[in-house]
């Protein structure tokens, strides 16, 4: 053992993030050797590490520790021990703690024993005695980091399995599922002051759930959302926006009023909160919070949050103005206005009437640079007879 090397190299080697924060229990290293001095040396070597060190002077003692202690991430065992050698011990340890990383300490003359430990006990590596302190530190740190990554992956798989089971249970009545999930989401939003809810649904499933909610909850709101999405697509085509950005804006347009989803009682009664009320003004923020359940949809949520901002800064919720407002939000705001006007003004000279109202809002409510795109969208809407 190179004690001088240990004294200098410990300061130079970076310590990886092997802290037990990824799991609830403390992280342990189990050292097994029949020589007490060896165990003391190993304990001193690892005394400054973030993990804890357990020691055993025989294979049987080590097996007892493995059976009673959780989160032993790595086993470092001597080969030459009485009653049970290292290879035999690691083979037994593999049955008790299959996830633990296993390593063998052996002399240069014990190559055959090391091979046996690898083949029978699943040892990941064998290290020579006497060891190099710096090398042993590096190998143990890397091994424990590997163990933590495996544990994290297992936890993620278990989370996915549990959530897939939840999704399978959603084969009942859609309206009942929507009301239940809405109540849960609304409750959590209120309790956390609109903090993001970390539900681990897949991205497509989450979007489809919201779209289905609009379909089943309010026919009028669903039609409006589809019209706004269609108008938005026409405007984006006129602006020659990048396809990837267009898809994000189109999805945000389709879900721009999903914040009203939190007012499920209103929706299922066939009505929505009245414009100008606090409940209505809150729907932009609530819509963003719903989309924040998936980190992948953060950009969509931002577009939804700002789709009622006005170009002159008089809108809500953040009173942004001009180009402070995301372009997608500016487009959705204008598309929503066009559809709302069309829904109540579809008589003679409809195109002229809508274009006049849009023109009146340019520079105050709407971005003047979108005027041409808006005119094209109105024309296509009337040609295709939306609704």
Adjacency order of strands in the biggest sheet = 2-1-3-4-5
* Oligomeric state: single chain
Q: What's the CATH topology label of the largest domain?
A: Hypothetical protein af1432
**Approximate helicity band:** 55-70%
Q: Give a short account of the largest sheet.
A: 5 strands, parallel
Q: What is the mean pLDDT?
A: 79
In angstroms, what is the radius of gyration? 32 Å
Count of spatially separate domains:
2
What's the overall geometry?
elongated
Low-confidence stretches: 1-23, 193-202, 263-270
What structural class results from the helix and strand content? alpha/beta
CATH class of the largest domain: Mainly Alpha
CATH H level, superfamily name of the largest domain = Hypothetical protein af1432
- Strand segment tally: 5
Order of helices and strands: HEHEHEHEHEHHHHHHHHHHHH
How many angstroms does the end-to-end distance come to? 82 Å
Looking at the overall shape, the CATH architecture of the largest domain is: Orthogonal Bundle
The helix count comes to 17
């Amino acid at each position: 053992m190179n004690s001088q090397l240990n004294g200098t190299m410990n300061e130079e080697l970076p310590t990886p993030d092997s802290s037990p924060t990824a799991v609830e229990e403390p992280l342990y290293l189990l050292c097994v050797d029949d020589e007490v001095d060896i165990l003391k040396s190993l304990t001193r070597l690892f005394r400054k590490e973030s993990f804890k060190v357990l020691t055993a002077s025989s294979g049987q003692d080590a097996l007892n520790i493995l059976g009673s202690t959780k989160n032993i991430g790595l086993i470092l065992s001597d080969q030459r021990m009485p009653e049970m050698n290292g290879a035999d011990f690691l083979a037994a340890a593999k049955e008790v703690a299959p996830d633990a990383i296993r390593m063998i300490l052996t002399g240069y003359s014990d190559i055959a024993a090391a091979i046996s430990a690898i083949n029978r006990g699943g040892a990941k590596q064998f290290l020579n005695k006497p060891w190099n302190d710096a090398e042993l530190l590096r190998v143990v740190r890397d091994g424990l980091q590997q163990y933590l990554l495996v544990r994290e992956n297992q936890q993620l798989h278990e989370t996915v399995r549990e959530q897939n089971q939840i999704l399978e249970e959603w084969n009942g009545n859609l309206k009942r599922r929507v009301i239940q999930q809405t109540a849960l989401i609304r409750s959590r939003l209120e309790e956390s002051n609109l903090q993001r809810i970390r539900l681990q649904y897949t991205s497509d499933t989450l979007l489809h759930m919201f779209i289905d909610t609009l379909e089943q909850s309010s026919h009028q709101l669903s039609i409006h959302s589809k019209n706004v999405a269609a108008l938005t697509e026409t405007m984006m085509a006129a602006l020659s926006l990048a396809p990837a950005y267009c898809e994000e804006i189109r999805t945000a347009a389709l879900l721009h009023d999903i914040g009203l989803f939190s007012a499920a009682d209103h929706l299922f009664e066939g009505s929505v909160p009245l414009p100008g009320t606090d409940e209505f003004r809150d729907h932009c923020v609530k819509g963003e919070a719903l989309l924040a359940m998936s980190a992948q949809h953060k950009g969509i949520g931002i577009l939804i949050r700002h789709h009622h901002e006005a170009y002159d800064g008089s809108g809500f919720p953040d009173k942004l103005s001009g180009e402070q407002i995301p372009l997608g939000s500016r487009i959705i705001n204008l598309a929503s206005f066009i559809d709302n006007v069309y829904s109540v003004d579809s008589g003679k000279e409809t195109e002229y009437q809508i274009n006049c109202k849009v023109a009146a809002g340019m520079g105050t409510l709407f971005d003047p640079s979108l005027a041409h795109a808006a005119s094209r969208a109105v024309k296509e809407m009337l040609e295709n007879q939306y609704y």
